[in-house]
Amino acid sequence: AQSVAQPEDQVNVAEGNPLTVKCTYSVSGNPYLFWYVQYPNRGLQFLLKYITGDNLVKGSYGFEAEFNKSQTSFHLKKPSALVSDSALYFCAVRDGEGANNLFFGTGTRLTVIP
Amino acid sequence: DTGVSQDPRHKITKRGQNVTFRCDPISEHNRLYWYRQTLGQGPEFLTYFQNEAQLEKSRLLSDRFSAERPKGSFSTLEIQRTEQGDSAMYLCASSPPSGENTEAFFGQGTRLTVV
Description:
Chain A is mostly beta strands. Chain A is built from no helices and twelve strands. Chain A has strands at 3-5, 10-14, 19-21, 24-26, 32-38, 44-50, 56-58, 64-68, 73-78, 87-94, 103-104, 108-113. By secondary structure, chain B is mainly β. Chain B has strands spanning 5-7, 10-13, 19-24, 31-37, 44-50, 53-57, 65-68, 75-79, 88-95, 105-106, 110-114. In chain B, a hairpin with a 6-residue loop joins strand 4 (31-37) and strand 5.
């Protein structure tokens, strides 16, 4: 069975500081990992994904994430947070080739304090 | 805008009534998904279409729920005899033919409130 854990419901960070939003996963096959962001009254927007290759992936708006197979983690990071980054962030996993659906975590609300 | 479009954006209905939502995916995407999101939770998978074929259904999709994609383009999700527990955001997403390793693109959702 597949699962995703986002251990922090809320993350607060000062503007200009680095931010990290944590995600761990469990799958039976090879993980396909995704980060999405949700702004109020908006749909989910894709940020980045890991399928294969380099463990450090770069995505939209200056975000990046590092795939760590031994720790089964895929933490989202950004070197310098912006107030406009304040939103709800979801980590999601697809359980390898042949799987059709994404399994989402419960989300982490990021607040960047001016 | 050539993104995923959902209609209506909001729906308020009385318990016991039937409701139908529509999703128009990105035009070249043959894969279409429905998800449900309740407050404080991440989206939960409901069902998946490849072209017009419904290939996967979650156990969350009770007998009162039915989804169609008759011509492999737009899709509808119908809920019969709505219950208060059906109140949620219903999200549609689509992805291109090589969908296994590509991201899904989500619409803005239909927020259902059952009173």
